[in-house]
């Protein structure tokens, strides 16, 4: 990513770009074309070789196989080994792209994400006029698989960070770890790391007619057991190479390592690709011990479930009563014509050119509790809307410029009351512009929060009138 890259905006490609290659397991040659897509489109595959050209969203709920890579399936179509391509898209900050492919498997190329990054750079990256809504993890989420000895956790952090640790009980690999502190370093530190396998796995895969597209150029082969001349001879035939040998480090001489811990870095690459299937950009620190595609996808599903269950909390303003307000009650009385008992905003704690957040402390002594369900005090819903309107009036007047103004509300739509407001509650009043102010007409979306729960929400339209 360039220094000018804005991570809080959505991005797509400037133009279409293609790459061709063989699938690692199927051995099928496929053409892959990456095309620009509108904001909010996300990442979607399209099998252009099949009738009706079915679409497959990059979604962890659509994963059907993780045995030797990650496979997505929907609408009667599959696409496999998607993780390296997805990692490249995340690493380059691409949010919206259509991936047209005319085969069942993404080309393996050299076994890393770098070939896909190269074509993304060739196409160019375009910033879109849409905000990228990050989900910040606010509590530790754990996944443990005792049988596979896998442990994964995501913790609160300001950026998306990943640490991987691998231990295959192999004298060759030993214990390795890799770390990515910021996604801006993905290209240089992680993307070139290639997939790897053990020699005994390679033989098993060949016996089961898998890795039809495997060759000496797209996988590091780890040899952690002694092999004889007969086996070396068989490997020469498999790889069609005359000088197959085992290096002193315990690797087949097909590839030179790009990093001493290249296997650990590739496991990190796989996590980036598999967690792209969450469907939400997240901020959090992932620590993964002995990860694999199966547990990566399980973890993605866990995180997605947590986000869906808590997504409504994303917009909850943070209220700390110890922090001085932006505007106190004296300023509010100078701005609004309302007075006790009809002034329903106590202070303003946040104010920008697009949003305002106010506070109303609801006490048992409020005048309306005397006659509104006096045996079971509940704040009237219309007064909650009035409190929002007053808060929105301060925002509108603040944006109106020099002079004295009043605001008169013209319309209320989509009003919903979701939770009762009772004595002792603190109402957090949030008003956000839904559209730019035109000819004195101000459209806003209002929400009342009690704690972390939405009590009331509505769309309001007001007119700004000069006194």
TrEMBL record:
Molecular function terms from GO: (3R)-hydroxyacyl-[acyl-carrier-protein] dehydratase activity; metal ion binding; UDP-3-O-acyl-N-acetylglucosamine deacetylase activity
Binding sites annotated in the UniProt record for Zn(2+): 84, 266, 270
Reactions this protein catalyses: a (3R)-hydroxyacyl-[ACP] = a (2E)-enoyl-[ACP] + H2O; a UDP-3-O-[(3R)-3-hydroxyacyl]-N-acetyl-alpha-D-glucosamine + H2O = a UDP-3-O-[(3R)-3-hydroxyacyl]-alpha-D-glucosamine + acetate
Active site, per annotation: 293, 372
Pathway linked to the protein: Glycolipid biosynthesis; lipid IV(A) biosynthesis; lipid IV(A) from (3R)-3-hydroxytetradecanoyl-[acyl-carrier-protein] and UDP-N-acetyl-alpha-D-glucosamine: step 2/6
Co-factor requirement: Zn(2+)
Swiss-Prot/TrEMBL GO biological process terms: fatty acid biosynthetic process; lipid A biosynthetic process
CDD domains in alphabetical order: FabZ
Location(s) in or outside the cell: Cytoplasm
UniProt GO cellular component terms: cytoplasm; membrane
InterPro entries per the UniProt record, alphabetical: FabA_FabZ, FabZ, HotDog_dom_sf, Ribosomal_Su5_D2-typ_SF, UDP-acyl_GlcNac_deAcase, UDP-acyl_GlcNac_deAcase_C, UDP-acyl_N-AcGlcN_deAcase_N
Keywords associated with the record: Cytoplasm, Hydrolase, Lipid A biosynthesis, Lipid biosynthesis, Lipid metabolism, Lyase, Metal-binding, Zinc
Residue intervals passing through the bilayer: none
Predominant location: cytoplasm
Entry EC number(s): 4.2.1.59, 3.5.1.108
Name used for this protein in its record: Multifunctional fusion protein
Species assigned in the record: Niabella ginsenosidivorans
Lineage of producing organism: Bacteria, Pseudomonadati, Bacteroidota, Chitinophagia, Chitinophagales
């Amino acid at each position: 990513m360039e220094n000018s890259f804005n991570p809080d905006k959505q991005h797509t490609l400037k133009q279409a770009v293609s790459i061709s290659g063989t699938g690692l397991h199927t051995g099928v040659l496929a053409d892959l074309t990456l095309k620009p897509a509108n904001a909010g489109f996300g990442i979607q595959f399209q099998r252009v070789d099949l009738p009706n050209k079915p679409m497959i969203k990059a979604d962890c709920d659509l994963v059907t196989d993780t045995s030797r890579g990650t496979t997505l399936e929907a609408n009667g179509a599959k696409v496999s080994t998607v993780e390296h391509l997805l990692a490249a898209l995340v690493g380059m900050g691409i949010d919206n792209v259509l991936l047209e492919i005319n085969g069942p498997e993404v080309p393996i190329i050299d076994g890393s994400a770098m070939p896909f990054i190269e074509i993304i750079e060739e196409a160019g990256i375009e910033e879109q006029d849409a905000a990228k809504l990050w989900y910040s993890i606010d509590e530790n989420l754990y996944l443990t698989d005792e049988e596979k000895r896998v442990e994964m956790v995501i913790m609160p952090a300001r950026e998306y960070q990943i640490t991987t640790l691998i231990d295959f009980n192999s004298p060759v690999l030993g214990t390795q770890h890799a770390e990515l502190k910021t996604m801006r370093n993905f290209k240089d530190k992680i993307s070139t790391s290639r997939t790897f396998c053990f020699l005994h796995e390679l033989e098993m895969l060949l016996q089961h007619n898998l890795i039809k597209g495997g060759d000496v150029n797209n996988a590091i082969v780890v040899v952690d057991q002694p092999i004889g001349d007969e086996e070396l001879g068989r490997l020469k035939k498999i790889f069609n190479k005359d000088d197959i040998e085992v290096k002193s480090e315990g690797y087949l001489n097909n590839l030179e390592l790009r990093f001493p811990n290249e296997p650990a870095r590739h496991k990190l690459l796989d996590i980036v690709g598999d967690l792209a299937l969450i469907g939400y950009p997240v901020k959090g620190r992932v620590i993964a011990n002995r990860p694999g595609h199966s547990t990566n996808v399980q973890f993605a599903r866990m995180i997605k479930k947590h986000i869906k269950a808590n997504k409504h909390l994303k917009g909850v303003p943070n209220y700390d009563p110890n922090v001085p307000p932006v505007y106190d009650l004296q300023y509010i009385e100078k701005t609004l014509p309302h007075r006790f008992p009809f002034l329903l905003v106590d202070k303003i704690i946040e104010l920008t050119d697009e949003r305002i957040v106010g506070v109303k402390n609801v006490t048992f002594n409020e005048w309306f509790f005397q006659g509104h369900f006096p045996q079971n005090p509940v704040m009237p819903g219309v007064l909650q809307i009035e409190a929002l309107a007053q808060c929105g009036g301060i925002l509108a007047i603040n944006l109106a410029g020099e002079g004295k103004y009043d605001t008169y509300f013209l319309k209320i739509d989509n009003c919903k009351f979701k939770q009762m407001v009772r004595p002792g509650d603190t109402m957090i009043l949030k008003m956000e512009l839904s559209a730019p102010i035109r000819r004195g007409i101000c459209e806003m979306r209002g929400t009342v929060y009690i704690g972390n729960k939405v009590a009331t929400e509505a769309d309001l339209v007001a007119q700004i009138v000069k006194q």
